[in-house]
Amino acid sequence: MSIQMNTMNAARSICLLSIVLALFASCGKNNSETPATSPITPPPVTRIVSFAPSATEILYELGLGDKVRGVTRFCKYPPEAGQKEKIGGQADRNYEAVVRLKPDLAVILKEQRDMIAFFDRYSIRYVTVGSDSVDEILESILSVADACSVAERGRAIVENLRERMEPVKDVDNDNRIRGDKPKVLLCVSRDGTGTGAIGKCFVAGTASFYDRLISVAGGTNVMSGVNQAYPTITAEAVIRLAPNVIIDISMSYGDNQRQQKNCGDWRSLKTVPAVKAGRIYCLSGDYLTIPGPRAALILEDIKNALRQR
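RE: above sequence
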């Protein structure tokens, strides 16, 4: 009886030992031959539709212009983007045109998430871009680059933009600002341009990407206490805020005569320090209101305005 028991115990021990050895062998095989996690390679992108000017500019900056099939009617840069088929705008999207173009990727603003159900229905991949801050713009470039398998190109662009957005130094050789930073009012839109008076103004608050550009350029946003993207203020508020510099990018001013007339509206606020010192800068350019790769150009314009006396 004892011999039989010993034999059975030995058999059980051999069985358990075999299981343990098999487990060790299995673990060794997984660690050496099959990684625990494998990088997921996104499918190749060949046909892209863009639902915002900033998204379109990111795509072209990444060298993907030849893959862009459709853009909004507001996408005009670079010039070749304007030749692409139009898929409407924010308020009148042409979904039929999108289906006809058969895209394998859509680039949308994060505020356009109401389109996701449509993309899911037609199995269209999508990536979102944002513009609330400079960092979000840079992250958007990286996200689009990753989705389109050009991550290295995206990192190079972002690195270049970060370098260009280094804050200015306080030292001044006739073109730099020393001492206190000037208070800057940046107007992005306003009512009644060219009327000789200042109406309702939409200005850059601390929650807008312009706030970072003003700071990097060597100024202080006069709206620093307002945690909104684009608050509305009146002429009376401008007087109370007393900015040292006013930068108006509220429209593409067109010819010089019209620009001078519209810019002259600010002179009606005679007690404002910026008006007294003649430090009113009305800028013109299609890039000024597009939070994309050309944000560096906006920064240069702000820097140039703050360097002037």
